[in-house]
Amino acid sequence: MRRPIGVIDSGVGGLTVAKELIRQLPYEQLLYVGDTSRCPYGPRPKEEVYRYTWEMVDYLLEKNIKLLVVACNTATAYTLEDLQNKLDIPVIGVIQPGSRAAIKASHNKRIGVIATEGTIASGAYPTALEMIDRRIRVNDLACPSLVPMIESGDIEGEQAVQIVHHALKPLKEKNHIDTLILGCTHYPLIKTLIENEMGSHIQVICSGEETAREVSLILSYQNLLNKEDVLPVHEFFTTGDKEKFKRIANAWFDEPIEFLRSIELG
Amino acid sequence: MRRPIGVIDSGVGGLTVAKELIRQLPYEQLLYVGDTSRCPYGPRPKEEVYRYTWEMVDYLLEKNIKLLVVACNTATAYTLEDLQNKLDIPVIGVIQPGSRAAIKASHNKRIGVIATEGTIASGAYPTALEMIDRRIRVNDLACPSLVPMIESGDIEGEQAVQIVHHALKPLKEKNHIDTLILGCTHYPLIKTLIENEMGSHIQVICSGEETAREVSLILSYQNLLNKEDVLPVHEFFTTGDKEKFKRIANAWFDEPIEFLRSIELG
């Protein structure tokens, strides 16, 4: 069916999920909302994240989406269950796909998770992992310095290397993990920095690829795949600075984005 | 919920799927039926495969399974839609998970598929791939010599290398593919032989791993995960020779199988 897929994020991080959705589901149209003006969500109280998330969702429901992807770990941690209960369309978060992929990848069952303060405090990753395998041991770590750095766009050079080095230090000291979940959709934008810091023996899981796979399955399982033969124009909406959003999006995607509009929420 | 997962196959091939299910979903009990005495299904008429598949399904329904995995590509090609329409539990085949994984892996959108005559004749893989991405080009090839070789257990040595060499030759001659789907669950048992023959530039997709991921998602999505904390004893049933089944299973699994029983179907 021709209705679009909705994707919401606190800012540009969800573009890592959107890119994979476009690659793995090229005939599905995306409507993306990035709440850049209120990013980061990580340090905000649960009630605030909940309210902001619902504002994005309501905006997209007006546009008749057939499935919602919560491409923000913090929003997933705080609101997924509520959204799944209240909406009559499928709602896919990023925490369970990342967890399932980590379980598939890990051999020693020791999995690291880096994420925002909010996601770590929620315990959502340990819960999701242990729901499937009670023998998994999780080392999780809040990295509050990373999202502001990524949203600023300054992700190359020695300063970025140093920020990543300091952020990951506590995890490296317990480096018996063999798999690391990037538990924030911003982090794949600095995946190389993180891999260089952690070393090549650690498998790094980006939830974007995994989430796209699961969206593909649910669309197929629910018979919601678009059967048209025309490549769609995706629509991006940001509550923040359009130029900065466009710069980061165009650096991340293979092709420049065609449709970008500023919106106000709340 | 504590009810088991049912897995059916024409013989031992589905063990490649079962192994991944056990690894990725360690707290879920499997009931596995391998119709070894009537294997291979590949050259049989559709009606016969349909009847044999339903006999396995009816056997497992009596045991109150909560989800069915059709771990045989030929049976998936011929019966999946019918099973999904008629059963009130989720039914997962192996063709769509393999297709989604190949779309995720391929960069040049040229995908090879090797499978039994029945699976190739059904067109199930091109249909599944094109349903998601109309730009995919599929090169598919029936390899009728491979399943009998694998069921015989003689999968090492020069003769096996030669059988694989001759089977794959037509595909190598069109080797612009970058991804090869093993479209028969027997083939992962000779994955190394196939990889050596095709060369390291070709990514080989085993549907077992991918199917286990999708079963994990559907159990979670439908709230069917087992929440107990006891590792289950899996049960295996074969219509053929128990000793041969046990030998192949024990070579394939990390631990010897504990429960194996002969059954008659039909």
TrEMBL record, chains A, B:
Reactions this protein catalyses: L-glutamate = D-glutamate
Residues reported in the UniProt entry to bind substrate: 9-10, 41-42, 73-74, 185-186
E.C. code: 5.1.1.3
The keyword Isomerase is assigned to this record: yes
Enzyme class: isomerase
Active site residues per record: 72 (proton donor/acceptor), 184 (proton donor/acceptor)
Pathway linked to the protein: Cell wall biogenesis; peptidoglycan biosynthesis
A Pfam family of this chain: Asp_Glu_race
Organism domain of life: Bacteria
Coiled-coil ranges per UniProt: none
InterPro entries per record: Asp/Glu/hydantoin_racemase (IPR015942), Asp/Glu_race (IPR001920), Asp/Glu_racemase_AS_1 (IPR018187), Asp/Glu_racemase_AS_2 (IPR033134), Glu_race (IPR004391)
Molecular function per GO: glutamate racemase activity
Record's keyword terms, sorted: Cell shape, Cell wall biogenesis/degradation, Isomerase, Peptidoglycan synthesis
Annotated transmembrane regions: none
UniProt cross-references to PROSITE patterns, sorted A to Z: ASP_GLU_RACEMASE_1, ASP_GLU_RACEMASE_2
Function of the protein: Provides the (R)-glutamate required for cell wall biosynthesis.
Family per record: Belongs to the aspartate/glutamate racemases family.
UniProt name for this protein: Glutamate racemase
Organism: Thalassobacillus hwangdonensis
